[in-house]
Amino acid sequence: MTLYNPDTIVAISTALSESAISILRISGEKSFEIIQKIFRKGKKLEDYFDISKQKSHTIHFGYIYDGDQVVDEVLLFIYKKPNSYTGEDLIEISCHGGVFVTRKILLLILENGARLAEPGEFTKRAFLNGKMDLAQAEAVADLIKSKTDLAYKASLNQLEGSLSNFIRCAREELIKIISLIELELDFSEEDLEFIKKKDLKEKILELKKQFNKLLNSFIEGKIIRDGLNLVIAGKPNSGKSSLFNVLLSSDRAIVSDLPGTTRDYLQENLIINGILFNLIDTAGLRFTKDEIESEGVRRSYEKIKEADLILFLIDSTESISDIEENYNYFTENFKVENSILCFTKTDLKMQISFEEISAKKGIPVSIYNLDLVDNLKRIMVEKFSYLQISQYKSELVLTNIRHKKCLEKVVDSLDKAIDSIDSGMTGEFISVDLRNAANHLGEITGEFTNDEILNYIFSKFCIGK
Ligand SMILES: Nc1nc2c(ncn2[C@@H]2O[C@H](COP(=O)(O)OP(=O)(O)O)[C@@H](O)[C@H]2O)c(=O)[nH]1
Ligand SMILES: [Mg+2]
């Protein structure tokens, strides 16, 4: 395996746009040597400054040179191995912001012997040098991408090692059990029993319970990380696009009294009480001969299938028979747990009373009544009350699909071990299943890994991280 690449790598670590400062990062064996060639302490080329003689974690003012031309005034941050983010000799150059200057310095460093870093390559090196485990490295990517306080807290929690510690402890526990079984095998002729089969099974069941609890947190974790898909559905003209706009406080979707205006779906982010909603406005649900609109309707149904929460709208100004028909459609096709029934346009002449609306477990909504809109928002959050920040403290949640897949394999192996115990198999068989479980646990933290897994994980990072 050629996991470790000794090249010296460089990247711009800040966003490339007009900004006050930018930061370039360079890491690897030749970092000091390369920067030595283009950095001077003063305005004269002779103002030589020996980088390798400086202490780690020091900052130095100076100039970047291209030949005998000054390119920029910069600050140099020096980190000596192993005390850097990557564990290698590392320099950060803080230069004036803007695309042009930053690019020019990047080119100079490339010309002097570094190579452009791949996405996530700095963090990959941090992992390979034992600065963090794989679950923590993945948390770095999530932290950068987090859009809400909840997502930020969950990824920070993971970065600080909460998941890793849990996995490590569980794995140690498993290995302890395995060693008892294997010890017994060594003494098999003497017929010694180091652990009773009944106790063994109990210990495995206890571990399995903990893993299942973590697995069950995945849906919550996914919503914390990626947000909650909220689809607004209902017949054309029921007021979907209007509600979408009011919830977002913008005129994002086109509103019209012509049915069938929204032909595709629109998606925008909305954060309420720290919960991220991916709000989706759909084309109406109806049979239509218009080809484009019917494609829109098909996409509406697709979005409804993927939804975590559905706002189903019924126009309360429609005839009572239409309202009943709509209501029946709703009760036959939607589940109470993940939908909210809204009767819209209650500022107009309604064909259904407020009492009947609440008897149908619906809520009144009008885009011209902000109290009703706030009430809807409150109910949207309430549906997911278990996500409220006050309840989410340091409770461990699983947010990463890779971790979920590994844990499922762990539970599967534990089930096999239990089967082996129940059917009276010998210790050899039980220990093989338990070893598999321990290995799958190790995959989460990266104790067992390969190039393919690492490339997959780090390719999703941004360059410069
Ligand atoms: N008075 C009133 N009109 C509304 C309300 N919601 C929507 N409308 C009107 O109903 C028509 C259809 O709305 P639209 O949002 O385009 O419905 P969609 O087809 O479901 O997206 C438009 O003329 C809107 O102005 C409401 O709460 N009150
Ligand atoms: Mg619309």
Structure summarized in a few sentences:
With 465 residues, the protein is an alpha/beta fold.
The figure for the number of domains is: 3
How confident is the prediction overall: mean pLDDT?
87
CATH class membership of the largest domain: Alpha Beta
As laid out across the biggest beta sheet, the strand order is 3-4-5-6-2-1-7
Bound molecules: guanosine-5'-diphosphate, magnesium ion
Number of strands: 13
CATH A-level architecture of the largest domain: 3-Layer(aba) Sandwich
State the CATH superfamily name of the largest domain.
Answer: P-loop containing nucleotide triphosphate hydrolases
Radius of gyration: 30 Å
* Main sheet: strands, sense, barrel: 7 strands, mixed
Q: What is the 3D form?
A: flat
